Amino acid sequence: MATTYLVTGGLGFIGRYLCRELLASGHRVRVLDSVVPQVHGTRPPEAPEGTEVFRDDVRDAAAVRRALDGVEGVFHLAAEVGVGQSMYEVERYVSANDVGTAVLLQELIQRPVRRVVVASSMSVYGEGRYRDASGAPARPLARTAADAKARRWDPVGPDGRPLEPVPTDEEKPPDLASIYALTKYMQERAVLIFGQAYPVEGVALRLFNVFGPGQSLSNPYTGVLANFSSRLQNERAPLVFEDGQQRRDFVHVRDVARAFRLAMERPEAAGQVLNIGSGRSYTVCQVAELLGRALSSPLRPEILQKARSGDIRHCFADITRARRVLGYEPQFFLEDSLEEFVEWVRREDAADHSDEMTQQLEARGLVS
């Protein structure tokens, strides 16, 4: 039986894939999206055929009220995205992410739906999980500006000895290192608290580094892979902060879209926080080199040996819970999916704004 779902931020990168996933499953889809120029550029993408579109802001209560009419479930993806930018455009991020979520939840009091699935982020963890030389779990000391100046990139334990990064599970306590992380944690907690008080189930998906065809290549805050691609397409070396050995989990957007659908469908997902990643880790230098080879570029990454405020060293996903609760299993891995991604990149007009981003951060003392 067809169900009507609302996707806030449904014209964004992940949102468009989610709309297609839902339509392919026989559902009706409505989108609420304010079409932010930084994300969508001067030519906003078209919604998938069959999607009903409301071009409004999630902070507009009247618009949210109209969009919720007849809806049975909400996927809440509308948000500003960018760790570095959030550190100097604080009001913009708090308003769009947290006030937007508050307006949505306020309207759901009078127009309840069965379930809300919210897009959270791996950024809420701060540093990921570590263990010491004996194999015991260990909490790293916070990295300082002095560490950055001395190029001491890898966290150490209280005894000063090196630690080994391991997959991060959902039980790791949050450690919010940026304004963006703070807003994403507020979004997920607000949805889950709301779900405990009202007959509206809440689910939060902590997304790791999402990639795939369709990312905004001209938005320097959209993600590592898109940022590197725009540099290479403009015959410029990818800029890599620190020493490039920081580890991340890159998850394909199609796997993410499927995870959202499963999070809406599976009864046992109610009230859960779930990691959505690939379950694999890659260094940032490794990603730059893989992409350079795929694009047949001779350019090697430029290692900046500088740190950005709000960045963490290592964090990659333990997806055990998502496998158990959702039956989620990633199908598209970075090393097997770059050919499709590169074919799309070559067709795109990518403006490189990474220098502007770095200048904005340096001007405010957010790079050391």
What layout of secondary structure does this protein have?
Blueprint: E1 4-8, H1 13-24, E2 28-32, H2 37-40, E3 51-54, H3 61-68, E4 73-76, H4 83-86, H5 90-110, E5 115-121, E6 129-131, E7 137-138, H6 145-149, E8 164-166, H7 179-197, E9 201-207, E10 209-211, H8 224-233, E11 239-240, E12 247-248, E13 250-252, H9 253-265, E14 273-276, E15 282-283, H10 284-294, E16 302-303, H11 320-326, H12 334-347, H13 354-363
Parallel strand pairs: 1-2, 1-4, 2-3, 4-5, 5-9, 9-14, 10-13, 11-16
Antiparallel strand pairs: 6-7, 6-8, 12-15
Total of DSSP H or I helical runs spanning 4+ residues: 13
Task: Categorize the overall geometry.
Answer: globular
CATH superfamily of the largest domain: NAD(P)-binding Rossmann-like Domain
**Ends apart, CA distance between termini:** 55 Å
Mean pLDDT: 91
Described by strand count, sense and barrel closure, the largest sheet is: 7 strands, parallel
Number of domains: 2
Architecture of the largest domain, CATH level 2?
3-Layer(aba) Sandwich
Strand order of the largest sheet: 3-2-1-4-5-9-14
Give a description of the structure.
The protein is an alpha/beta fold and 368 residues long. The chain has 13 helices and 16 strands. It has helices at residues 13-24, 37-40, 61-68, 83-86, 90-110, 145-149, 179-197, 224-233, 253-265, 284-294, 320-326, 334-347, 354-363; strands at residues 4-8, 28-32, 51-54, 73-76, 115-121, 129-131, 137-138, 164-166, 201-207, 209-211, 239-240, 247-248, 250-252, 273-276, 282-283, 302-303. The strands form 5 sheets. A 7-stranded parallel β-sheet has the order 3-2-1-4-5-9-14, with helices on both faces. Strands 7-6-8 form a 3-stranded antiparallel β-sheet, with no helix packed on it. The chain has a two-stranded parallel sheet with strand order 10-13. Helix 8 (224-233) crosses helix 10 (284-294).
